[in-house]
Amino acid sequence: MEKITADLAAQHAELRAILTDLTPAQWDSPSLCPGWTVADVVLHLAQSDEIALGSARGTMAVAARNAGWDLGEDGATVNEVAGSAVEKQRGAPPAELLARWSAAADGLVATLAITDPKRMLPWVANDLPARTLATTRLAECWIHTHDIARPLGVPMEATDRLWHIARLAWRTLPYAFAQAGQTLTGPVALILDKPDGSGTWEFVEGEPLTTVRGSAEMFLHVAARRVPGHEADLDASGPDADAVLDLVRTFA
Predict the structure, then answer these.
(1) pLDDT tens across 122-134, in order?
(2) pTM of the predicted model as reported, rounded to 2 decimal places
(3) 252 in any annotated domain
(4) Domain that residue 175 falls in
(5) Can you spell out the DSSP letters for the chain?
(6) What is the mean pLDDT of residues 173-186?
């Protein structure tokens, strides 16, 4: 857990550095999440990190209630539940919101760092190993850091932290297909250019029938649903090429 929690903490630090210097007007400015301001995105991260921390501590149900999440809401999607929670709790001053998210984020890193990486922890859709939960939190923080930074014109540099997220997207392809009522024809290989240009990350198992090649960062923007797969500068070939780019994801 040492590597993934260190990288999760580093992603938190990147976002915190951006937020610390924002003006009140910037906190109220639109993010890349439709209908959400920068403050709304930070509130969502605070709420979801509080729930993840509750999961690791065995108090997830209480944490979810305190965060405004109604996980038992009939027929509601995860996005709808998250959106409702933000509506319920938005309006806190920026300093208070930053402190709330920081407390949850720091607590999560500290708790997961001493957790068995294979220990199964409850999460929104189903139980996850602690290492996978840490990776999903890294993925979400990275996605939402972009959602905040890009409209504000704050540059972000891709780092090797993306390896964890790429591996998550690759390993969960069967789940993503199943959620869409589809089945993979066969194994998928990812051959992704490292952010520093020093080579590639290769995620391959068995004899792949479908292969995706290109920038790791671009692939993850597709997986984050920020760039449509058919518009991405990626080379995908094989029977599941189009479906992989359409269905790959880094979140439940």
Answers:
(1) 998 789 999 999 9
(2) 0.95
(3) no
(4) 162-247
(5) -HHHHHHHHHHHHHHHHHHHT--HHHHTSB-SSTT-BHHHHHHHHHHHHHHHHHHHHT-HHHHHHHTT--TT-TT--HHHHHHHHHHHH----HHHHHHHHHHHHHHHHHHHHTS-TT-EE--SSS-EEHHHHHHHHHHHHHHHHHHHHHHHT------TTHHHHHHHHHHTHHHHHHHTT---SS-EEEEEE-TTSS-EEEE--SS-SEEEEEEHHHHHHHHTTSS-GGGSSEEEESTTHHHHHHH--S--
(6) 95
